[in-house]
Amino acid sequence: MSSYPTAPDWSGAVAALHQADSVLLIAHVTPDADALGSALALGLALKSLGKKVQVSVGEPDFQVPSSLNFLPGLDLVVTPEQADSADVVVVCDTSSSERLGVLADFVSASAISIAIDHHPTFNGFGTIHIIDPESPATAALALKLIDLLDVTLTRDIASAIYAGLATDTGSFKFQSTTSETLRTAARLFDAGIQHSDLARKLFDDEPFDALRVLGVALERAVLVPTAVGGRGLVYTTVSSYDRGELPELAMERVIDTLRRTTEAEVAAVFKQTDEGVWKGSLRSKTSINVGEVAGSLGGGGHKYAAGYTGTSDVDQMVIDLISELDRAAGA
Ligand code: AMP
Ligand code: MN
Ligand code: MN
To answer: Does the beta carbon of 301 sit less than 6 angstroms from any atom of ligand 1?
Structure first.
């Protein structure tokens, strides 16, 4: 059962997609495997039904990041500049219209727009809603929609779904993983996915330079045992100078190492974009809802994984984060 006030409108989405001749699928800006994998899986399914399909991301001149360039169906991807208007727009894994980037107007101008998402902070854009914060990944919702469309689960579709499911569950380690999630994964195995190959490309494959920057970030990490009402915060920064020629997405996994810190309930990584703005990534373990903390700092996310974009220098962002975390801890 969904905890979102509006039950997913499966029949509305299926009817709209069956009637459409053309569909534009959109993943959130700086897409992860859940956003892009869901859009590609649905795109492949709709293409098999004879629809004209495009997949895009609202970043000017969007190119698929090298960390995701093994996903199936990438020939469906177009830049936002190349995106044609479509009968139906489907938005995947995107909690707010800000994360649609330059495609936001495209969505609001579309007569039918389906939002498929699992963020508790989903803020209501779109005309048809499939929102389930209990779902471990948008990819799980995309798979259900594909089933309802009566499309056969091919290996390519299953691989794109698996990429999203494995990513958002932290390889089936996070609290959101249920026995049903594992049954879904088993079904994807049965559809012929190469799970160890996918897992290596998703989690265990990085440019040497990215590992060196990880080393720099860990070296300068700060542990604040008194923060979070005494439960501890560990944080670090990665400037655009540290990153050098590497893309912003190459720094996504710094948080995965930092969050292992025993002495900290919350881990934070502040990453500077090419434009010089700082983005905060937050992770918590058991007791702090970082989605709410990120929400009060202008971002959003899930209970144990969230993010936001800063409006000040990074030193002030650390101060503001510590005060929000203390408030969330009731300190
Ligand atoms: P990240 O730390 O970038 O991997 O993001 C963790 C989670 O927080 C993801 O589920 C994102 O969808 C969400 N998130 C990250 N940044 C933002 C933001 N600026 N606004 C809303 N949600 C965000
Ligand atoms: Mn996402
Ligand atoms: Mn997701």
So the answer is: yes
